[in-house]
Amino acid sequence: MIDNTPFILALPKGRVYEDFIPCLQETRFALKDDPNKSRKMLLDTKCPEVKVLVIRGWDVPTYITSGAAHLGIVGKDILMEKEEEEFVELSDLKLGQCRLSLAGTENILTGSSKLKIATKYPKSATKFMNSIGIQAEIIYLNGAQEIAPILGLSDAIIDLVDTGKTLEENGLKEIETISEISTRLIANKASLKTKSDLINEIKEALTK
Ligand code: AMP
Fold this sequence. Notes:
This protein is of the alpha/beta class. The protein has two domains: 7-96 and 182-206, Periplasmic binding protein-like II (D-Maltodextrin-Binding Protein, domain 2), CATH 3.40.190.10; 98-180, D-Maltodextrin-Binding Protein, domain 2 (3-Layer(aba) Sandwich), CATH 3.40.190.10. Helices cover 26% and strands 31% of the residues. The strands form two sheets. The chain has a six-stranded mixed beta sheet, sandwiched between helices. α4 links the parallel β7 (114-119) and β8 (135-140). The radius of gyration is 19 Å and the shape is elongated. The two termini are 33 Å apart. The chain binds adenosine monophosphate (AMP). Adenosine monophosphate binds next to β9 and α5.
């Protein structure tokens, strides 16, 4: 039976997307629509059977697990929070490199048995704090975690750090690196068998 359904590559909006588009545009899967001028979420590529879906990074694992999208690009920070979902991590695209770190005022760890941690990574934060023998009370924040300790909402934060400028400008210090983070290529498990040719071709084109 001929399968006429398009092959869908899911891309996250934002920082990763800006880094990734130049890589994609050098391949035969280059976007035909200008993503900056269009509000379409499913974009055509130069390859008629491949479409690009533009969604929030946090939703990429869900689309891949369900099979609604076949391949996805997403940060390792998100994958660590979504480890119960069923996807296969194929490669490290070495884009969006940064680290997930614990930050706060100096000496925050000294003598503490419990700390309030502001983060959008509750699983990674709880796991890390347990590993250093400190109980974490998680304050879930979707952004601007850096301001939470200054205003007394939390004792420390666990967030992505790149240059360290945001921490510095908000009077915080990077205390421990929890994990190195970069952008990964993930695939739906079943698609690895049924769409292996396209998956391998896209993977090779993107990891050159
Ligand atoms: P920086 O000041 O360069 O250390 O960047 C820190 C800010 O940028 C924090 O608010 C982070 O959440 C965010 N950030 C840093 N790197 C990334 C990344 N690779 N992807 C998404 N957000 C990031």
